[in-house]
Specification:
Layout: H1 3-6, H2 8-24, E1 28-35, E2 41-49, E3 52-59, E4 70-73, H3 105-118, H4 137-140, E5 146-150, E6 165-176, E7 179-187, E8 195-196, E9 206-214, H5 227-236, H6 238-243, E10 251-255, E11 261-268, E12 274-283, H7 295-298, E13 302-306, H8 310-322, E14 326-330, H9 354-365, E15 370-374, H10 384-395, E16 399-402, H11 407-420, E17 424-429, E18 435-441, H12 449-461, E19 476-477, E20 485-486, H13 489-507, E21 518-522, E22 535-538, H14 555-565
Parallel strand pairs: 5-7, 5-12, 9-10, 13-14, 13-16, 14-15, 16-17
Antiparallel strand pairs: 1-2, 2-3, 3-4, 6-7, 6-9, 7-8, 10-11, 11-12, 17-18, 18-21, 19-20, 21-22
Helix pairs in contact: 2-3, 8-9, 8-13, 10-11
Length: 571
């Protein structure tokens, strides 16, 4: 039921307040109360100022008085800078972020009059009324259909250039429904760029060529619509007119003497006349400090991820966001539609090898990536040379992450880690999503991976409760006393996130923050876990060195051994 039927006294008070306001002020020339088709209460008012009439609708939402009335002009009119687009709601003194239920619709009307009169002083000049509204970037851009994204530091490349000049620029364009977003990719001609974007390029984007014009004048407030305005702009900036002689009209960025930046696209209107489409320039801030990881430390490391399925793909994305740039990705699987339920990849990857699609995904998150992709499964039917090459590439990495939960793959990775003295992290989600395991093995700090795994298995076996789901190889597990457990994306994400933290802890090279080197993480009440997020640390002890110490041998001993080992005809 609507608010004005539930609180009839408040509804009468709202109408009485408008009557009193009209009697007190001659600028309020009309007040009419009605209801809309959905029974919303609406009070039509007319404000007169400077000989001009401003018809407004004060609409009470169904959530009033918990939320403020909406004050809107009639028609697609732009009455104020403090308005959500032409014909949109006025942003007044009271808004959702400072609303008080004691405020009336009449007080909102007074605020509207103050805004209209404040922006139209008697001398005829245009004045901007200061705003107390602290809007977010997203809120500001809701009504900006066309946007130009400019990475942080792009304009700094022009500091030592001529104050009046024309520079070629490159852009990529993405579209979604009626919106267009342009991304500035470079400044300067191809091959001699003054600046290149450090940001990853969006996929499925259209490339555009444009020009940046630096002028020695200020053009003032420029209306960027219609051929007449373009002719005026081209007259003041002759370089712009010459650009129209090109077969494809370019995207234009103008930097005025005052430093004001304007961006617009040129399209053909009726009868081929140029029309300027203005773009809102969004200057991006540096985002590196949003990461808590030591990017300088992790960016120099190469990480091998064996298994690019649900866990491996999520770990790779997390590490890329944290600063890792060099990867060796190993997996022979093709990404299929069914993989969408738990993988970092999306529909663009369907039909591609997971390693290739994941390399592209990483490139969408960060730039300057170096991903060595290997389309093999460790221990599978493939050539010995391909397997050896993959294992050597894995061993050359600074960290090995095994995410297949496959014993053969684990054994081969463990051998590479031990042979090359490299740390290893492994993770798996238990069948049915009841929980998961993360573990690490650091050279000569933890036991080598095979020994560590055996200690973990013994620890689990020492508990009386059978590990009834451990032997299954899928994400579902049946149970007699209820519906089956199913591991969904959230379950996989929890385990992958913990494994990524383990990996970053190793890559950053500082003192570890984890007191144990293996953890069981509960995600359901089953097996050892008494409740979701029930965590069991497992202490594993180093009992033997990672590599046996080779006995010292003289040159003669080595030569003698080779003579014994190699057939005489090959010596």
């Amino acid at each position: 039921m609507t608010w004005w039927l539930l609180d009839q006294n408040r509804a009468r008070a709202e109408k009485a307040a408008f009557v009193a306001l009209q009697e007190e002020h001659d600028w309020l020339t009309s007040v009419r109360t009605r209801h809309l088709a959905d029974l919303q209460l609406c009070i039509d008012i007319e404000i007169t100022y400077g000989g001009e009439k401003f018809p407004l609708a004060v609409i009470y939402p169904v959530t009033f008085p918990d939320t403020p009335p909406i004050v809107m002009p009639y028609g697609e009119k732009r009455l104020s800078e403090h308005q959500y687009g032409a014909g949109g709601e006025l942003c007044l003194q009271w808004r959702p972020d400072n609303w008080d239920p004691a405020i009336t619709g009449a007080m909102m009307a007074e605020s509207a009059y103050g805004l209209i009169s404040g922006e139209r002083p008697s001398d005829g000049q245009t004045v901007s009324v200061p705003s107390e509204h602290r809007s977010s970037l997203g809120g500001e851009l809701r009504f900006e259909t066309w946007r130009l994204m400019v990475p942080d530091g792009a304009w700094n490349s022009l500091d030592r250039q001529l104050p009046e000049a024309v520079f070629e620029i490159s852009l990529t364009m993405t579209a979604r429904r009626s919106q267009r977003v342009a991304h500035l990719r470079s400044i300067g001609a191809a091959g001699s760029e003054l600046w290149k974007s450090p940001n990853p390029a969006p996929t499925a984007a259209r490339s555009r060529v444009g020009f940046l014009l630096r002028t020695g004048q200020d053009m003032g407030l420029l209306t960027l619509h219609g051929g007449g305005e373009f002719k005026d702009l081209a007259r003041r900036v002759p370089e712009l007119a010459s650009l129209l002689e090109r077969p494809l009209w370019p995207f234009i960025v103008v930097i005025e003497k005052s430093g004001r930046h304007t961006a617009f696209d040129i399209v053909r209107g009726d009868q081929g006349h140029p029309i300027l489409i203005p773009y809102r320039i969004v200057e991006e801030n540096e985002l590196a400090m949003r990461s808590a990881s030591d990017r300088g430390a992790v960016s120099n490391n190469r990480v091998a991820i064996i298994g690019c399925g649900s866990i491996g793909s999520k770990i790779a994305a997390s590490l890329a966001r944290a600063g890792v740039r060099k990867f060796v990705l190993v997996d022979e699987d093709i990404f299929l539609t069914g993989n969408l339920v738990r993988n970092e990849l999306d529909a663009w990857a369907i039909g591609w090898h997971k390693v290739d699609a994941l390399a592209d995904r990483i490139g969408q998150l960060v730039t300057d990536t170096d991903a060595d992709t290997r389309r093999v499964a460790l221990g599978s039917q493939t050539s010995g040379l391909a397997m050896e090459s993959a294992l050597e590439a894995i061993g050359d990495c600074d960290l090995i992450i095994e995410a297949t939960a496959n014993p053969t793959s684990f054994n081969l990775c463990a051998g590479a880690a031990r042979r090359h003295m490299k740390p290893m992290v492994w993770a798996e989600v238990f069948s049915g999503g009841i929980g998961g395991l993360i573990a690490r093995a650091r050279p000569d700090t933890d036991p080598h991976p095979l020994s560590a795994r055996n200690q973990i298995i013994r620890w689990c076996d020492d508990h009386d409760t059978p590990w009834e789901w451990k032997t299954e190889k899928n994400y579902e597990a049946a149970r007699e006393d209820g519906p089956p457990f199913v591991a969904d994306d959230a379950d996989v994400s929890v385990v992958a996130a913990h494994a990524a933290r383990f990996a970053l802890d190793i890559l950053q090279g500082s003192e570890t923050i984890f007191p144990s080197s293996a953890y069981l993480i509960g995600l359901n009440k089953a097996w050892l876990f008494t409740a979701p997020f029930d965590t069991w640390p497992i202490d594993i002890k180093q009992t033997e060195p990672w590599q046996a110490t080779a006995a010292a041998s003289s040159h003669e001993d080595i030569s003698g051994f080779l003579s014994e080992l190699i057939d005489e005809e090959f010596q």
